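Hi L.,

You mentioned the student needs an example of a multi-chain input paired with its predicted structure. This one should do, with 601 residues in total across all chains.
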Amino acid sequence: MDGNSAIGEAAIRAGCRCYFGYPITPQNELTEYMAMHLSRKKGCAFVQAESELAAINMVYGASLVGARAMTSSSSPGISLKQEGISYLAACELPAVIVNMQRGGPGLGSISAAQSDYFQATRGGGHGDYRTIVLGPSSVQELADLTMRAFELADKYKIPVIILGDGVLGQMMEPVEFKKEAPAELPIRENSLRGATGRPSKIVKTFTSNPSELEEINWSLFRRYTLIKKQETTCETFMVDDARLVVIAFGIAARIAKGAIKTARAEGLKIGLLRPITLWPFPEEQVKEVAKTTGQFLVFEMNMGQMIEDVQLALAGQGEVAFYGRPGGVIPAPSEVARVITRLYYQKGLK
Amino acid sequence: MKLIYSRPKSLKKAVFHYCPGCGHSVAHRLICEVIDEMGLQEKTLGIPPPGCSVFAYNYFDVDMAESAHGRGAAVATGVKRAYPEIVVFTYQGDGDLAGIGTAETIHAANRGENITTIFINNAVYGMTGGQMAPTTLCGMKTTTTPYGRDHLLEGHPIKMSEILALLEGVAYIERVAVNSPSNIRKTKKAIAKAFQMQLDKRGFSMVEILSPCPTNWKMSSVQAWKWVDEEMAKVFPLGVFKDVTEKKDAD
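Structure written out for the whole complex:
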């Protein structure tokens, strides 16, 4: 199955009944999958919106009445959705937003990139907020993390971003769906389905009282602290005896893993740390690895974005080198292997 | 003693923050009267906009949710598609509906979304201090058209009711005003009809309300209410622009 369709199937199995989208390459298979499976079905909603702005605001509407709702797009379209994501975050509404990244800035290219890391992990829209950001690196993980995304969104009343890319969306791999679609989800307690048997409710953020808004910000950030504590995940690969650890996420981590296997076969002690939650970033895990390794290489398909989180986590411990390929260029594992090997020898690790 | 007039149940006991002579408070009350009379208080969700009426949720005693500027029709689409049992109305100003939210409004109407829009047209951006709106009349002075709106530079006032009435998905469009007792009565009837269209699943319904803004028009309340008849209604004629009540094949 292709990655985009796998997200669609996983979402439906996670109880997503509402999808709103707008065409953009390289994620159209997902919109088409949802059109096939959610339109003209009782209790489901599919709308091809007139714009990404409209689509994210439809998600906001569906989330208001308690539905599990999703939208997807690729980099330029995600920029347009930032307005809605900020409102979702502010109003504490769950939603899942998929970004199958492509090269930028501007219209860029339709080839895979990772240049929206900053946008995704720093909030992206206006105001102080965070979204949970998941970085899958295989079709299987796209499916698994899509299901997890809906659970996290509901649990923490927060928008969750799945930060994939054009390669993951298009590639075909076997995938196992670990859950069946639930028959019916419980109605979320904060749903606005009419004030029957209860006082009327308001969902809003606007206030003319700054101290009220300050408290809203505090309450959001208290929840973010909890998320950091409970939901941070990462994968480590051969780090125990590693003298150099590569840190990469998503498809770049997949490429790096191939390169590391080649290098290991030649006797180089190299490991991989792959953040799965990009926000919250696995700072503690990076610190843990730094107890036994002094050399790091951050590899990203951008000009260096996640590297800032790595440096913040290390706080001066160890040395951090960077290899970046922006613009939609997808380097082969052999290219990455060359970079790793050169660094390994330069640093006198052999 | 027979009670003939009281505060609608759906209208909270709060003091309006609107300026004297403003049309918002009258429009709010009329919507609440309709919600009460149709028995919809417990199944309605209102979507107010940014602008002077951003605080509408302080007055309506029904579920209310804030919308981003201009996105009311898209939010209402999501609401109604996800939970068709709800009665949803958007409350939007002219900058919101006819400026930043034109695309959302036109496409929701064209899809025939079963939603009701109350469109307050006061020809000016109120809360931000009286800038030119898409509906500002030619010649009218605002803070951003200090020499008067010139159609060669700023275009003509946009007529949303006329534009939307052309779309197949639209069930009902009427332009009314809240500047006299008889117009206020007509406005209430129009709002009731718009909600009925939604209940009957006939498609998109909108009531455009010409609404005085004495503060930004720099007039007294009385002058402003007269100005609606004498100037505004000439550019924005009152009346029904679309009504599919009699049409049987509307579905």
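You could point out the following to them. Chain B has one domain: 24-250. Chain B touches chain A at residues 41-45, 50, 54, 57, 60-68, 71, 74-83, 85-87, 103-104, 106-107, 111 (CB under 8 Å).

Best wishes,
N.
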